[in-house]
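Thread: heme C complex, take 2
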Amino acid sequence: MLKIRSFKLRLLATFLLMFGAGLSYAADPSKGAEIYSMHCASCHGASGISVMPGVPNFSKSEGLMSSDRALITFIQSGKAAMPAYRGVLSNQDTLDVIAYLRTLN
Ligand code: HEC
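Output below.
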């Protein structure tokens, strides 16, 4: 009985480790680049140099001073002419695109 239980616990621990690793928030800037060209470049410019007034210039790090967490909230909520991406981009997609934005300066 004890043996079976500890085996189950070991299985559970293995499962949690694998699941936990899958949930890791490592951001992938190259995937972020694809998302950026698809969803963001029309306003923010292919290389982060804004193409319309009132849009921050990412090549000068404008609009990128906040934490990743604050930027996720901003991108998901939108503001003025900036569309909301909640339901369009997952948290992981959003983190990937933020990692890419931070490479544009
Ligand atoms: C339709 C045009 C448009 C698109 C598309 C767009 N943005 Fe924006 N974005 C804006 C505008 C306008 C602002 C400035 C909003 C303000 O502060 O009034 C902005 C601001 C930002 C900021 C600055 C946040 C801050 O704290 O000042 C970030 C980061 C950002 N956008 C990321 C993105 C990302 C990532 C995408 C694609 C997923 C995207 N934007 C798509 C127009 C756009």
